[in-house]
Design a protein that fits this description.
about 200 residues; alpha+beta; Cytidine Deaminase, domain 2; 2 domains; 5-stranded mixed sheet; 5 strands; about 45% helix; elongated
Length: about 200
């Protein structure tokens, strides 16, 4: 195993063994647990489902989170939001391997610079509740000037459903009344995304 000069040639099981311990890595390998499966499990689930020690399970969660943070491009406060790709580069790696839908918002100031991001709701494999109060309350409190809506499809396919389109329309209408425009709704899949603004579907 040549971690010093050629880490790209090292088997995944060996890399995992270095990070969490060889015994735990061998156990996961024998059970056919993929890296994606590990990402989807919390500490308690890893212990219960895969018979890991709590220490090993915590290491798995830490390694998975580090990998996601490495793959994500952070949206820093004050950063100019230039495109829907900026949104996907931040949220895509975070939402890709989840088994349930999550809804996030990005709050922007009047110059379209990032103020903050917020997790609004978490639902099931096929849906997540989106209520206007949950979307607009953080924006009003932060005195934001605009909002970008983001959610992931655990199916891996980012094509918007009829429900996605209807909810977006209602939120756009509510935003117009409140003076808080919804600029975009970005739907993240496993390796790609759909921007409703880019498709001209935000009106």
């Amino acid at each position: 195993m040549d971690l010093a000069t050629r880490p790209d040639t090292v088997a995944t099981e060996d890399l995992l063994g270095t990070a969490i311990g060889r015994r735990a890595a061998r156990s996961l390998h024998r059970q056919g647990v993929s890296l994606r499966d590990m990402r989807r499990r919390g500490v308690a689930e890893l212990v219960a489902e895969y018979n890991l020690s709590e220490t090993a399970a915590r290491k798995v969660v830490a390694v998975s989170e580090l990998a996601v943070r490495h793959a994500s491009e952070p949206l820093q406060p004050g950063q100019k939001l230039l495109s829907s790709k900026d949104v996907y580069n931040h949220f895509g790696p975070r939402l890709r391997d989840l088994e349930v839908e999550q809804v996030h918002i990005v709050l922007l100031n009047s110059k379209r610079r990032v103020m903050s991001t917020h997790l609004i709701s978490q639902g099931t494999l096929t849906s997540s509740p989106i209520h206007p109060r949950g979307i607009f309350r953080p924006a009003i409190r932060a005195a934001a000037a605009a909002i970008v809506l983001v959610h992931g499809h655990p199916s891996g396919t980012p094509e918007p459903s009829s429900t996605d389109l209807e909810i977006t329309r209602r939120l756009v209408d509510a935003g117009e009344i409140l003076g808080l425009p919804i600029l975009d709704h970005v739907i993240c899949g496993w390796d790609t995304f759909v921007s409703l603004a880019d498709r001209g579907l935000m009106t």
